[in-house]
Design goal:
By secondary structure, this protein is α/β, with parallel strands linked by helices. It contains eleven helices and seven strands. Strands 3-2-1-4-5-7-6 form a seven-stranded mixed β-sheet, with helices on both faces. Helix 2 packs antiparallel against helix 8.
Length: 254
């Protein structure tokens, strides 16, 4: 059985990009580990601070994940302003890539990881923390000698169509549709497509475990609320496939 480490930027990313793959791997008997680069200390509207890592652990349990680790950085936020670091830790976007990669490599060695799941070069939709995950993940795999690196992504063409549907349904969506035209990966760069419809119930339940994000005021919160309320069969049709680009050593840069 393989040891699979999924490296993500924030709690909830593990569900949206790789939740079905992780649940499927765990069900097949592989050891599955989630490492997130950041947590958050951002308050929600009632003034409380959600425990995103507790939500992540609840999500991971539903997916069948064996271990969850936080790399020790703070969320860098998305937008033109990179705010000062909180008193107790550095924002991930400011982290030295070699230092962060060394932290992740230590976990990869400890787990004797056979596979690292990371992000594509665009960091998906371009969030600075997601781009950093790509850079740190690539370097950590080199340091730890991980032979297989799969970078989670989505076919760009699918995103464009999905945004059109969201707009037609009049669901609030505060992302720049034009920017998404160059986000994620073109279909020709994708090497793996996994059918995870059989794990839709776990994936939907894991998404619902991120209560602060589903009930929050973030840009994608209305979409998340819709997703967790859908009949599981409809959810499976929408999110029942996950995509990766092979960035294993010897394949060259993408």
């Amino acid at each position: 059985m393989a040891s699979i480490v999924a490296f993500h930027a924030h709690p909830d990313d593990e569900v949206l990009l790789t939740g079905g793959t992780l649940a499927r791997a765990a069900a097949d008997g592989h050891r599955v580990v989630i490492v997130v680069a950041t947590d958050t200390m951002s308050p929600v509207p009632d003034g409380s601070v959600p425990d995103r890592l507790a939500e992540l652990r609840a999500s991971a349990e539903i997916l069948g994940v064996h271990r969850v680790e936080h790399l020790g950085y703070a969320d860098s936020g998305h937008g033109p302003v990179l705010y000062p670091d909180p008193p107790d830790r550095q924002r991930f976007a400011r982290a030295d890539t070699e230092e962060a990669a060394a932290r992740l490599a230590a976990l990869l060695r400890e787990e004797r990881a056979d596979v690292l799941l990371s992000y594509d070069a665009n960091g998906g939709y371009g969030h600075r923390d997601h781009v950093k995950v790509h850079e740190v993940g690539r370097r950590a795999a080199e340091l730890a000698g991980v032979g297989r690196v799969l970078e989670a992504t989505l076919p760009r063409e699918v995103i464009v169509r999905l945004v059109r549907v969201i707009r037609l349904l009049r669901i609030p969506f505060r992302y720049d549709a034009e920017a998404l035209d160059t986000a994620y990966s073109p279909r020709c760069a994708i090497t793996h497509s996994f059918d995870v419809r059989g794990f839709a119930r776990q994936k939907q339940g894991a998404l619902a475990a991120h209560r602060s994000q589903v009930a929050g005021t973030g840009r994608v919160a209305p979409v998340l609320r819709l997703l967790v309320r859908l009949p599981v069969g409809v959810f499976a049709l929408l999110l029942g496939r996950e995509w990766f680009a092979d960035a294993s050593p010897g394949r060259g840069s993408r």
